[in-house]
Design a protein that fits this description.
The protein is α/β, with parallel strands linked by helices. 25% of the residues lie in helices and 31% in strands. The protein has one domain: Ribokinase (UDP-N-acetylmuramoyl-L-alanine:D-glutamate ligase, 3-Layer(aba) Sandwich), CATH 3.40.1190.
Length: 290
Amino acid sequence: MLKKQVEDFIKKTRDLKVALIGETIIDEFVYVSYEGHSMKSACPVYKLSDRKKDVQQGGTAAIAGHLKDFVKRVDLYTNSDQEIIKTRYVDGFDKKKHVEINKFDAKKFPSLKIDTKKYDLVIVADFGHGYCDKLNINDGFHLMCQTNSNNFGFNRLSKWKKNRKRSVCLDLREASLQMNRNISETDKDIKDLHGYEMNADLVYVTLGGKGSVCTNGKKVVKHKAYPSKIVDTIGAGDTYFTFACLLSAVEKNISSLAIPSLAASLSCTWLCNERSVTKQTLIEHAVRSV
């Protein structure tokens, strides 16, 4: 049954023309081993590994990677690949992150006006680094507005409340920031969130290991998280967002969240954005997840 859902989904999305707008983030992974603490200060000491660092394209570039095997065309509007760089020092054995150092180009991004009428699906992924701050586009797009350590509390969906959206996607912490109170996944809280400066047809909320929910303000649809052999959860929310956008582009009434939940689960089986979800891997994961 799940395999058939994936196959039907693939047929419905294959002719879509997509505009994807937002920041590309370069993710660097430098491998180290922990050697102990400095004798003279409370400072951990690491030894650089001989292993070559891994460099990946994250942010909207990762989303584009997930999209490309499922749609006819993806036009990516983004910054250059040297303006936003996140360097993570990770353990060479278990890949646990020890420290992260971010580099952002100080220059101001220019105003951006995009006529989106020629696209079937328009996705805006605002990671809070400024690229989307002067964006002028038609209403009816799908939006993610990510909260991270660099923009905590300052990059809320309220920024976009004047724009009518087809859907928005956020996690429970971002939802709590949006509502100015700690909320849970209860139907009442999720419906209240829909009515609070969302201005969107659909609101998706990811719940980590608990799964996800979606509401149109009247009805709430819930779905469990699919089990997988977790290597890294970085990027799983972006993957869910990608496939939630595709789902809501081809389904007027959302009755199941199986597809974005399955894709997010699959993306946890590799490090960050080192791979992309494809039609074949999604079908294979569906078979394993039954």
